[in-house]
């Protein structure tokens, strides 16, 4: 019973699907796909399939489901399917898209195709899409929908209810109506639940909430997500510089931003894209990884060059070669802890100029303390191993130096990178490793050269 | 204008707050805190403050705001503040808590304190809380609220609307009413927006949605989050094994789960807790980091032990010491790319027994291709550097071996760890590094020993 849903829905259908696929019973596959699964389930299934199976499945999806399935796919995979459609097929697919989803999708296409698609649309739809397209994808403008239901402040709740009843459906995620002036200036929000418990004779002005600050159209999507999380919003109004209502943002799109932002740090620290297709084909995977390995080879060669400076010392005392990776690796581990903590703290907006001094001081002290602790342990081990007090003292000093360097660089580096508009999650770990390798080998082999010379 | 909100709200208030704090104008601080800021803003401010400032601020927060602020704090910091309250103070604070938030909070307290607090509550509230407390925190049961509004299927929409109007307010995030039988069995959902556009004379049965599968109370919170993301839910009903309605889960709590799950992978891979307090004091930070450094020291010592086996070879050919970190580090980088990809794929439910074979094959091929590419580059560099063809050939072979090993271990290890109920994000990177270090040094120095012997 633990996993009713999992067993009954996903797993069982997946199993029968994959059995049907294996046996080549394509009609049966198509029936399961288009019969029982929601568009988001189909998208998840496609994302969980290796390339050949994925192409097969996509061909079996009903034409009128394709558009919705595309909306749930990650950029990488969606881009691939889109590139195989012509302008007319695209136009058919996107008929029912909301303006923000459509803009997202169009942004992945070449400019000429965008123009072709826009020309197939009617005037009103085209204007709505062009409006959203005019804002960068990663801002409130790129995230918003234009399908708002607005009301004036001076009418009664009863009139609003009758006005709503004239609609066939309300836009998804409508938890509030937006109150605007005659000039479309934002005035307040009218939560539907509040309306339902109010006296129908009261006016909108009496019932509405005015303590909600509308979202400026140019606010970054990450900041939009912070506002939604902090104030538990379901939908929020978006305004231009003059305070005129442009559209609204809904929680479903914000959840995607939260997921992507969180994934971004994790994936970037390993040199991967947050939108990386888990089942990308070999050649694509190899090409992307090659770039990252090449960048990291520079770090490794730099470390080797540093070691090369001390060849003579190593030739004299081979034990140094045995022990030197310890200093570099402990520095890397300590540094990446600090780096990860600071990157996360920056992402959630906890770290600013006001408290970075305290943080640097804490990391410095903690680096010294852990340096001393582990220096003692490693020194003891080294002395016992090589029966040499000198080598213990040298590795102890090098460890303390490297752990302190790691703490300081781990704190300052991400802040510096961000101020230079370089992604700390992507560049941070490579640069940090270079520093801890260079400092580690330099301190250990340098000290050894002095004392064994 | 880019950052209206940021400048006007957070930053400006933060700046005046920190100026007031610095100048010791505590009355002014208290006025800003309790006047203009929302409980979630105050919580964020506390999380962004070093310990001394944090304690000072907490003391200035109005008594009747404390409860709400606590709800927005992360476990680590909340636990600290809670530990300083006695049972009566606790009871005062938690009066207005929702049952799921209260259960979360109580779970952080010692059992004796929980009992004391429960005794101060009235019968009905106590039962509600004890019910939620009886489910593990990381399941649907631990996540749900019991404040549902339920209706019967056979009444008319008009009656429902009149029934709602008798409420003073509706529970937050009420986008749907839950339709249940006389025995409280779940039947369907009645979206409020759908009700508003329906004929008031129709019955609930005619208007309600029945294609929604209720969430089993024991489903894991991660799976609950997947359902919310996949079906764009705002609230969802929770049922027991017999299908009886127990409560409902709302998107605001699910967003927290999504954030925590995503943070978990990032933080665990660096040996940090996802709930880690960015501004934890020195001694706490040092202690936690020490454990992780100690574990990683075992990896480093293992690597040293492997190198130690080949001391004689290194003494003969010192160039080996210079080049050996390249082999180990490239293996580590390649492995951590695969590991991160697989951990992310597992977290979003893309990877299963059905496709892991394909994945392993792709990683193997990609490992060989990148191995050959970078082996050629590194071999060329090594030959030029040391004017020795043999050393180039040896490092090339070792690199290919280590990149392939990294690809295989990076794919299989997280799946194996998960099957053993060990957290792959936490244990994965340490074990992987051990493997790539050992294989790297062993392959490179081992081959060198054979050919230079």
TrEMBL record, chains A, B:
Keyword Phosphoprotein attributed: no
MF terms (GO), sorted A to Z: magnesium ion transmembrane transporter activity; metal ion binding
Subcellular localization, as worded in the UniProt entry: Cell membrane; Membrane
Major localization class: membrane
Subunit structure: Homodimer.
Cited PANTHER family: MAGNESIUM TRANSPORTER MGTE (PTHR43773)
Function, in words: Acts as a magnesium transporter.
Protein name: Magnesium transporter MgtE
Species assigned in the record: Marinobacter flavimaris
